[in-house]
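Hi P.,

Sorry for the delay on this. The queue was packed all week, but I finally got your sequence through. Input first:
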Amino acid sequence: MSKKKGTRLERELFHMLFEAGWQPCRFAGSGSTPLPAVDIIAGNAGRVLAIECKATKKDKKYIEEEKILELKDFSERFGAEPWVGMRFNNMSWFFLSLDNMERSKKGSFIISKDIAKKKGLEFDDLIKS
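Then the structure:
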């Protein structure tokens, strides 16, 4: 995903969260620091979500193990729920918990359109409760 597209999609999700009554915070440059960081953190006075945003125009996205471990580490330190927000071209957002991610033989995590539809939550389901 290009940096420009990634920034646009992160901002899209930021606005969706805000309009749904959550308070989001976007971390620009989260992928360029050696410390654990996520793309968006959002809270609603009851829950805190740590979201790593990914997008692709292909049918599946491979995510390095290191990025998922950083999301997990950040979330544990912050007291947040770790989620991967996945956006396929011409589809809405899907959100996957780390338990619902599948792995490749080489150790990367994989999110396909099929996995996202079967195991992921849509935006409205993510923000419930």
